[in-house]
Specification:
Blueprint (H helix, E strand, L loop, with lengths): L8 E2 L4 E3 L4 E3 L5 E5 L8 E6 L2 E4 L9 E4 L13 E5 L8 E6 L2 E4 L9 E4 L6 E2 L2 E2 L1 E5 L8 E6 L2 E4 L9 E4 L6 E2 L2 E2 L1 E5 L8 E6 L2 E4 L9 E4 L13 E5 L8 E6 L2 E4 L9 E4 L50
Antiparallel strand pairs: 1-4, 2-3, 4-5, 5-6, 6-7, 8-9, 9-10, 10-11, 12-13, 14-15, 15-16, 16-17, 18-19, 20-21, 21-22, 22-23, 24-25, 25-26, 26-27
């Protein structure tokens, strides 16, 4: 049976303001993907502050809710960043929160941390680079683990010991080339039980199947960074039909358009929640990787249009994520 890969977090930035971050007055949902019941099919969850609403069967209704972490509230110097993964190999994805470099994993939806460990530099910028946190089953053991991306270099921890077991490079990192910055995605593209990396450049997706730092598959899906009717696609990854391979989807407002076979056309749709904001004002920072931060503080500034070159910050968790 296929052990599920990293489920991409789609970071949705609100409007409001703080010293460095600005968001809108209207609160919107933040979207996540995971296999919530272990049936081999990924579905959507939405987060509202610290509470998650899970749609387990794709009917657009919440079948489970869970509260975990501090939500959008800043405690001390930290705001929780949420990650999704199968932390214990039980075939179900669960929640984790990252506070700085510390990651607190809930294995069983009870809202309590079952595993705590540290990896990477957290939110600290070193030599102009801030770690972007990714999740995937890097060695095919059926358990998801953490990786950090520093530029184009990805450092993978296989066993929660806080050290990198594999390091490789792919894509252009945070460099802008021909007006495009690579957005990084993680998935099991060929169904071999091991998650790999892909980069998105506009609507084109370049997938590495075997950590050899070259693209094994190219295809295009969605509108890339082009805004159409006030909407820019947010790219997500999941096994939408239970065939053991992860595929691409794009989120537009509250509807996910899923491609199940890499043909560039959507085969399934699922709607859930209140949708995403149509426009974003980004924090004034010098590195796109800093856009992973989910500092949600509200004020009455007007919204500004999305800068397409920085849109992939919504797809990384970042992270979250």
């Amino acid at each position: 049976m296929h052990f599920l890969s990293m489920k991409k977090v789609a970071l949705l930035i609100y409007f409001g303001c703080s010293m460095m971050y600005c968001f809108s007055q209207q609160e919107r949902d933040i979207y996540y993907v995971g296999d919530w019941d272990g049936d081999g099919i990924d579905n959507i969850a939405i987060r509202r502050n610290a509470t998650f609403h899970f749609d387990i069967n794709g009917d657009g209704k919440a079948d489970r809710t869970q509260t975990y972490g501090n939500g959008d509230n800043r405690l001390s110097t930290f705001v929780d960043h949420y990650l999704i993964g199968d932390w214990d190999g039980d075939k179900r994805d669960n929640l984790a929160v990252r506070r700085g470099s510390q990651i607190l994993m809930d294995h069983n939806f009870d809202g309590a941390a079952d595993k705590v460990f540290s990896f990477g530099n957290g939110d600290v910028t070193i030599n102009g680079i801030t770690d972007v946190y990714l999740v995937g089953d890097w060695n095919g053991d059926g358990t998801d683990n953490i990786a950090v991306r520093r530029g184009s270099e990805i450092l993978m921890d296989y066993n929660f010991d806080g050290t990198a077991d594999k390091v490789f490079s792919f894509g252009n990192g945070d460099l802008t080339i021909n007006g495009i910055v690579d957005g990084y995605l993680v998935g099991d593209w060929d169904g071999d039980g091991i998650d790999n990396i892909a980069v998105r450049r506009g609507a084109e997706i370049l997938m590495d199947y075997n950590f050899d730092e070259t693209a094994d598959k190219f295809f295009s899906f969605g509108n890339g960074d082009v805004e159409i009717n006030g909407i820019v696609d947010v790219y997500m990854v999941g096994d939408w039909n239970g065939d053991g391979s992860d595929n691409i989807a794009v989120l537009r407002e509250n509807t996910l358009y899923m491609d199940t076979n890499f043909d560039g056309a959507h085969d399934l749709t699922q709607s859930f929640g209140n949708g995403m904001s149509k426009s974003v004002i980004y924090p004034v920072l010098d590195k796109i990787t800093r856009f992973q931060q989910e500092y949600m503080q509200h004020c009455t500034l007007p919204p500004y249009n999305l800068d397409p070159e920085k849109h992939d910050a919504l797809n990384e968790f970042f992270f979250s994520h």
